[in-house]
Amino acid sequence: MMLKDYIYNDCGFCRTMARDVPLNEITLRKYEKPYDSSKREIIRKICLSIGLLQPGDGRDIIVDILLALEEARKEKKELTSFEVRDIVTQMRQDNSLETKGIAESNIRRQLKRLRDIMLVEKKNNLYRVSEFATLHDLFEQKIEKFLIPQAVGRIKEYLQVLNKS
User: Fold this and answer.
1) What local confidence, expressed as pLDDT, does residue 9 receive?
2) Percent of the chain, pLDDT > 70?
3) How many CB atoms lie within 10 A of CB 84?
4) What is the pLDDT of residue 7?
5) Which residue from 63, 56, 61 is spatially nearest to 37, judged by alpha carbons?
6) Contacts of 129 (CB under 8 A, 6+ apart)
7) Most CB within 10 Å of its CB: which of 31, 96, 107, 158?
8) In a 10 Å sphere around its CB, with 0-12 CB exposed, 13-18 middle and 19+ buried, how is residue 40 labelled?
9) Phi first, then psi: what are they for 24, rounded to 5°?
10) What is the pLDDT of residues 71-100, one digit of tens each?
11) pLDDT at 1
């Protein structure tokens, strides 16, 4: 999909500039094996591994959001964004972490990112890990078997068109 940005040059004339916007996006990283890691550290590595968190990123609120939803999944419990915020706030305080990024708008934005990669679903303003499935199963079904093959297929289409020209 192409969006157009309107750019004004020094003389005040307007020109349009096309910008590429991906239909979906996935980043994959490989880390060391998870030997004696805490649950939070394991969720953090999952977020890093699938591109939800960038290496060296201090703003890791998404880790606590996913951890809160994973804990709620075990009880088959759905949470409002306010409940997620409260749980995350408590987690961060318990672990002596900064409470930056716990604004309601940021919590909803991070929940949206989790929904975009199909790990979390929303129904009637309640959030849960999709179908209360394990993150392992969701990764296999939604990312490994759905998002990755689509991305690889599209890259191959571009490569085939390049070969023809």
Assistant:
1) 55
2) 88
3) 23
4) 54
5) 63
6) 69, 70, 72, 73, 119, 120, 121, 135, 138
7) 107
8) middle
9) -155, 170
10) 999 999 999 999 999 999 999 999 999 988
11) 42
Domain 28-164 has CATH 1.10.10.10: yes
- Contact yes or no for 110/91 (Cβ under 8 A): no
Structure tokens at 23: 């239909």
* Segments of the chain scoring below 50 in pLDDT: 1-4
How far is Cα 33 from Cα 15, in angstroms, rounded to an integer?
Answer: 51
Domain segments of the chain: what residues? Answer: 28-164
Q: Which amino acid is at 136?
A: H
Q: What is the pTM of this model?
A: 0.82
